[in-house]
Specification:
Layout: E1 2-9, H1 13-18, H2 25-33, E2 35-36, E3 40-41, H3 50-58, H4 70-77, H5 81-84, E4 89-99, E5 104-107, H6 116-132, E6 136-139, E7 145-148, H7 160-163, H8 169-174, H9 179-193, H10 196-203, E8 211-215, E9 231-234, H11 238-243, H12 246-258, H13 260-269, E10 275-280, E11 283-288, H14 294-303, H15 307-312
Parallel strand pairs: 1-9, 1-10
Antiparallel strand pairs: 2-11, 3-11, 4-5, 4-7, 4-8, 6-7, 10-11
Helix pairs in contact: 2-13, 6-9, 12-13
């Protein structure tokens, strides 16, 4: 088992300050049982966050920054690439952008809780405008659509994980989009302003949809890398990390420690194959169970960093 815990050390000031106050006895025990391996480095400025890169590697996917082909893989699973090919696919996510005096922020699209009917109604309304620019829209989920068009071929895009629940200004400047997409964004802003779905949502106090975000672009290689192990992703820290809610993030860590990490301790003590990756913005640290002589394990116990020290390094 290889477990990946994302948002293990989020950059928010409140969560960073809370790291020293974490009490994680099972995590401490794991540090005495597992051996650190060479870390994987990332950057808070990359279009594709480190946790996403790790998930892609576990599925044998490759791609430059901002070009991990998630949408193309979804299109393959739906049988859409048989007639359209593997290139030119993207995710289109309806969202809400909030313009403040000094920045533009995005509400986490998952928190919009769009119903299937709302999502399909919005897609049907927006589809003709996308079609004018040679873009097809296909249903995928209640919060994301699949899009196909030449404009998405080899177009680097910023992961939704980078912008959900935070400021988007820096990413808009870093992610240069063709004029046709910029015009489409403006057209959709005007269309959605008075759309019936938004009128109904506003009447009941729900956040409206006033924009969309493009991500998941990239073309998969003809021969993906072989997958050597199954990666289980744990995103229990995500919501509180995005909000920089230290109290909820600390509580989520305590729950993970008492459940998921407690199970890993038992597996490690039983000699089962165990690997744990903790992912932050700058680094992903991986610990695994290795066969070592008893004196090496004792030496490791006295040299292992504390959970707090490890998390602050991510």
């Amino acid at each position: 088992m290889h477990l990946l815990i994302s948002h293990a050390a989020p950059p928010g000031r409140q969560c960073q300050d809370a790291i020293q106050k974490l009490e994680l006895p099972r995590f401490t025990e794991l540090l005495n049982l597992l051996t650190p391996t060479p870390p994987m480095l990332g950057s808070p400025d990359s279009l594709s966050p480190l946790a996403e890169r790790l998930r892609a590697n576990s599925e044998g996917l490759q791609g430059a920054d901002g070009l991990i082909p998630w949408a193309a893989i979804d299109a393959q699973h739906l049988g859409l690439t048989k007639t359209r090919g593997n290139a030119g696919w993207a995710w289109v996510t309806p969202c809400h952008l909030d313009a403040q005096s000094h920045h533009l922020s995005m509400k986490d699209p998952h928190e919009l809780a769009l119903s299937a009917t709302e999502c399909e109604t919005l897609r049907n309304a927006m589809e003709p405008y996308f079609a004018e620019d040679g873009i097809e829209l296909h249903s995928l989920s209640d919060c994301t659509w699949l899009a196909f068009g030449e404009v998405f071929r080899d177009l680097p895009t910023t992961s939704l994980e980078r912008v959900a629940g935070t400021h988007v200004d820096v990413w808009l400047h870093q992610q240069k989009q063709p004029k046709s997409l910029q015009r489409l964004h403006n057209e959709m802003q005007m269309l959605l302003h008075t759309h019936a779905v938004n009128v109904a949502r506003e009447a009941r106090g729900a956040t409206t949809v006033n924009a969309f975000w493009i991500s998941g672009t990239g073309s998969p290689e003809a021969q993906p890398n072989p997958v050597s192990e199954r990666l289980e992703c744990v995103d229990a820290l995500r919501q509180s990390a995005l909000r920089d809610d230290a109290k909820a993030w600390t509580a989520a860590w305590a729950t993970l420690d008492a459940t998921v990490l407690a199970d890993l301790v038992q597996s490690a003590k039983a000699g089962k194959s165990v690997k744990l990756t903790l992912c932050g913005e700058r680094m992903a640290a991986t610990l695994e169970l290795q066969d070592k002589p008893w004196w090496s394990r004792i030496q490791q116990r006295f040299s292992t960093a504390s959970p707090q020290q490890l998390l602050q390094s991510l």
